[in-house]
Amino acid sequence: MARFWVCVTCAVFFLAFLVLHWRLCDSTVLRNFAFQVIGRAEQSLYQLDVDWPKHSEYFTGTTFCIAVDSLSGLVYVGQRGNDVPKVLVFTENGYFLRAWNYTVDMPHGIFAASTLHEQSIWITDVGSGPYGHTIKKYNPVGDLIQVLGTPGKKGTGLNPLQFDNPAELYVEDTGDMYIVDGDGGLNNRLIKLSQDFMVLWLRGENGTGHARFNIPHSVTVDAVGRVWVADRGNKRIQIFDKDTGEWLGEWKSCFTEEGPSSVRFTPDGKYLVIAQLNLSRVLFVAAPPPGSIGSCSVISTIQLGDQVLPHLLDISGKTGALYIAEIGAKQVQKYVPSLSYFSAGGS
Ligand SMILES: *[C@@H]1O[C@H](CO)[C@@H](O)[C@H](O)[C@H]1NC(C)=O
Ligand SMILES: *[C@@H]1O[C@H](CO)[C@@H](O)[C@H](O)[C@H]1NC(C)=O
Ligand SMILES: *[C@@H]1O[C@H](CO)[C@@H](O)[C@H](O)[C@H]1NC(C)=O
Q: CA–CA separation, 207 vs 168, rounded Å?
């Protein structure tokens, strides 16, 4: 009888060993576990979704940017590298759908636009090849529909439009768009275009004063008509009136260590979510009420692992899910609002 129990105990241990071995040798599980432990913050408003994506082996390059089309439930990832697909498409629940290569050189920023008439994907390209220095519009399956700028040639022109390392853009549902040009290069400017690509206003040149920029890296628009620009090299966010381009103010106090590299609002408008690249940190800053800019106040942070390097991020307008393109970790991770988000008065 004693012998029987010894055997049963052995069998149980052996099975447990097998299961553990299988779990830990799955690199996705290991990697997610490592980043989750390192990335934990006290009272974090967001928590890592370890199930996204289902299979991370699709990240074969350096993942620079991410855009969520929350109406279709799709996530678009721009990656760079030799012999890798430049755009990867996943579902919001983590399944890989498709990829495309053609007409993309070096993606920098990406935006999922939803206007009354259509869904589209816009990519800013900072490559020096035949598709570089342009901003391109694709339909959701990757057909090229529109090219702004002079392909393969950097410049400062406005008619025709030219860019030098265009960093990112934001497209409103009216089709009006805001472009930050760029990620270094000749131009340090914010341009508003109408839906038929006429220049409505333009702010900026290289410099440190009001409405001047040093690497304007990311741009977003809030619900009350203000444009927020991550002026990375000047370690500040500058805010403009979206109709007139008038300078409304700036935030500096949160960025003494490093400038912001990405800006997006949560769909309830409560927080501005900001990436700091080299600090591998994501800040949740209280969004100011209409009519006042006030100063920057950090409510919560996600400290990612050393060298994860969050470059650009996007937030689902439906669920509030946050996707972060990490150029150091070479992956995109998804975070979802946690219980403390809702107890902190989010909705
Ligand atoms: C992109 O290019 C790589 C390398 O040439 C190739 O393996 C891959 O199948 C291509 N992907 C697409 C979507 O065309
Ligand atoms: C822009 O100005 C900054 C200092 O304000 C300087 O470091 C940088 O080299 C300038 N860039 C260009 C393109 O002139
Ligand atoms: C991050 O560090 C790299 C390497 O030191 C540097 O080239 C880059 O300018 C830094 N970026 C920011 C946003 O500080």
A: 19
**Which atom of ligand 1 is closest in space to residue 85's alpha carbon?**
1
For the residues 231-253, what does the mean pLDDT come to?
98
Q: For residue range 295-340, what is the model confidence (pLDDT) as tens digits?
A: 999 999 999 999 999 999 999 999 999 999 999 999 999 999 999 8
Torsion, CA 265, CA 271, CA 277, CA 279, rounded to 10: -170
- For residue 140, report the distance from its CA to the centre of ligand 3, in Å: 33
Contact in structure between 160 and 150 (CB atoms under 8 Å): yes
Say which ligand is closest to the CA of 262: 3
Q: Which ligand is nearest to the CA of 188?
A: 2
Distance (Å, rounded) from C-alpha 76 to C-alpha 58? 12
Sign (positive or negative) of CA dihedral 287, 120, 308, 165: negative
Q: Measured from the CB, is residue 277 less than 6 Å from ligand 3?
A: yes
**So what's the pLDDT on residue 20?**
46
The answer to whether the bond into 53 is cis (omega within 30° of 0) is: yes
Residue nearest to atom 4 of ligand 2 (CA): 207
Name the residue among 70, 72, 59, 65 with its Cα closest to residue 106.
65
Task: Enter the tokens of residue 290.
Answer: 């209409």
pLDDT digits (tens, 9 = 90+) for 150-193: 999 999 999 999 999 999 999 999 999 999 999 999 999 999 99
| DSSP one-letter string for 187-234 | --EEEEE-TT--EEEEE--BSSSTT-BS-EEEEEE-TTSEEEEEEGGG
Q: 45-343 has which CATH code?
A: 2.120.10.30
Nearest to 66 by CA among 338, 331, 337: 331
Q: Which residue ranges have their beta carbon within 6 Å of ligand 2? A: 206-208, 214
| Domain ranges (residues) in the chain | 45-343
Interatomic CA distance for residues 106 and 302, integer angstroms = 28
Top pLDDT among 224 and 13 is at 224
Q: Are 212 and 205 in contact (CB under 8 A)?
A: yes
For residue 24 the two structure tokens come to 């830990």
The tokens of 134 are what? 């342009």
